[in-house]
Amino acid sequence: MRVFVAEAVGTMLLVLLGDGVVAGVLLSKSKAEKSGWIVITTGWALAVAMAVYAVGRISGAHLNPAVTLGLAAVGKFPWGETPVYILAQMVGAFLGAALVWLAYLAHWEQTPSEDLKLAVFSTAPAIRRTAANLVTEIVGTSVLVFGVLALGANKAPNDTGLTPLLVGFLVWSIGLSLGGSTGYAINPARDLGPRIAHALLPIAGKGPSDWGYSWIPVVGPVVGGVIGAVAYVGLFGA
Question: Which residues of 104-132 are buried (b: 16+ CB within 10 A; e: fewer)?
């Protein structure tokens, strides 16, 4: 239960701060409105770092089913514990999204665009092409899991407590370099949990939750996470 709570709280914090920065940039009459992609990618990077610092010592701070499944695929995490981790991540992501809705409660009715409201909660492609969007998510998540394993293998930052911050930098780099095409979900829980929240919460003036696209930020990261883990272990060993 302690591990379940840690993963749920960590993912909740991740989504609260990550979707929160998106809300600040996109919603009308926010003080951060239109501050741009650099602000969004920076906010997400810091969200990841803070969430990993918060619960890393308890659960390892996967906070992402793609990380959990990637580690399990190469024998670095027990398969029997993966359902508990993934359920906790989904619960945390939903709760984090609900808190973003509450934090920006006065702004939903002031924002006319249904697309912008959905974008606070979940990703969408800049150009909607199924194969290309799927490949983008696979590549981005492969880099994420490969990088997480590489950082974890370095003794010096682990000893000094810098690894969570470096993981944040990794996510920042992915967002800046690879995020422009699909919004870099690179995490099934981060996209699906808030998308469910968007569908269920009484958000003023919301539109549909774009379920037709929703499988891509789930399948792409899962495939990419396994590829990234297998590539790292295959190249450099355990």
Answer: beebbeebeeeeebbbbbbbbbeeeeeee
- Predicted TM-score (pTM) of the model is 0.96
Q: How far apart are the first and last CA of the chain?
A: 29
Minimal CA–CA distance to 52: which of 44, 62, 43, 42? 62
Class of residue 83 by CB neighbours under 10 A (exposed 0-12, middle 13-18, buried 19+):
exposed
Q: Which domain holds residue 39?
A: 2-236
Q: How many domains, in total, are found in the chain?
A: 1
Q: Residue 238's pLDDT is what? A: 72
| Low-confidence residues of the chain: pLDDT under 50 | none
Alpha helices of the chain — where are they, by DSSP H? 2-26, 37-59, 65-73, 82-103, 114-121, 130-152, 155-160, 163-178, 188-200, 216-236
Which DSSP symbol is given to 79? G
Q: Which two tokens stand for residue 82?
A: 């993966």
Per-residue pLDDT tens for 36-80?
999 999 999 999 999 999 999 999 999 999 999 999 999 999 999
**Helix 82-103 × helix 65-73 angle, to 10°:** 160
Query: Residue 26 sits in a domain of what CATH number?
Result: 1.20.1080.10
- 118, 210 contact by CB (below 8 A): yes
